[in-house]
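Appendix C. Worked example: non-specific serine/threonine protein kinase
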Amino acid sequence: MSRNKRRKEEKRIKDADLFKVVDSTLDTRTYSDLYYISRKLNIKTIYGAVSAGKEAKIYPALTESEEWYAVKIYYVSTASSKRAIERYTFGDPRFEGVRASNTLKLIEVWAKKEFKNLSKMYDSGVSVPKPIYVHKNILIMEFIGDNGIRAPLLKELRSEDVNEDLYKTIIDQVVIMANKAELVHGDLSEYNIMVFDGKPYIIDVSQAIDLTHPNAREFLVRDIRNINSFFMNNGINVMSETEILTRFIK
Ligand code: ADP
Ligand code: MN
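Step 2, the predicted output written as structure tokens:
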């Protein structure tokens, strides 16, 4: 076998080993994008999905240097996600001029938007998974959990682990997000916060909007209400909405 041919053969064998679980819902194009990313980031194995939401699936991935990543794949999908994307990116100065001509392009805008929001939040000190890479409709970030087992969502925590400290830390994140990153999550609830070693991580930030967005205040208040009612229902003394709102500088 020639050197070149052997190299190709080795690559083929490596590629075949990449997936621990074959996912029949992934199309060929997504598979080949995943091979591309895996080579780029030295990912050796991608495991079965830890979660399949309405618009995205999350897979744990292990690198050659034994680091865990979360691979978020946005579906090339539904009319409802298309509408949501248009609604959220409309009026956002960062996405002006993006005239997505089809759903695939829109999903790619969505992934890129989550990466940008994640980066801005991470750089501002908000507790979010560290963003690693984005390519087409695939986003790679730090894996929140242990050994490929994801951490629980706030919603899934045992009630004795839902405490005032956690509540305060989460409100702090919302404040840092607005004051430092100038972003409002817009879909914050017990379903979009993971808790690992007692520390909250805000996730699912694709729809986060700029503070300058006309609906920013309304979304901020809704986020705070969601958090307050979750903790209130768990018997925690929460701060009043008015008291929390005084902490926002803009
Ligand atoms: P969506 O709600 O649009 O499907 P999310 O970003 O909320 O997408 O992710 C879906 C689920 O995947 C989460 O509820 C969580 O269980 C898991 N998840 C998301 N991000 C990570 C991460 N960085 N590490 C581990 N698990 C994650
Ligand atoms: Mn979510």
